[in-house]
Amino acid sequence: MKFLWMAVLLVSFVGVTGCVYDAAYCRYSGDSGTGYDEKHFDDGSWGVEFVGGYPDFCKEAAYYHAAELTWEKGYRYFKVLQKADVSRNVETSGPHTTASGGQVAGSSVYVPMYLYKIRMVKTSGAGTVDAYHVLNTHKYPRKEEPYTVDERNGDKSPSGK
Fold first, then answer.
1. What's the distance, Cα to Cα, between the start and end of the chain in Å?
2. What is the pLDDT of residues 76-88, one digit of tens each?
3. What is the pTM of this model?
4. Going by C-beta distance under 8 Å and a sequence separation of 6 or more, which residues neighbour residue 118?
5. In the chain, domain spans
């Protein structure tokens, strides 16, 4: 599964950062070169991705954001239609300044990237993932405690989602 918008993120990422492993869970930013992003497709599905960090962190952060996006869009469940590790080595032109301030000539940088293609659904069924359960039980990437739906919404109940 390839997304054109992923190539744009990749080029921005490599040009800005000197270290791909220092990622935090946040929306993608050209300033940090890491983070999650999503895209809505004409067939009603969504592409959810995470760029940067260690490969396992990248995969978990993309999965977590799939649940978060599902909840934010008013759904309780989602189905994973496709998942792909699209990490790669990228050649950079140099010289450029690293995150620590050093100068580096052109080099090869390993960029972890993970993508999920999901479809949000209102009811549970075969192959569905409960976004509420993911948000309440999975550790928020780089946070000690789970980032719960209750924490996000105060005391709002997930009923009706």
1. 29
2. 999 999 999 998 8
3. 0.69
4. 45, 46, 48, 66, 69, 70, 78, 79, 80, 81
5. 4-153
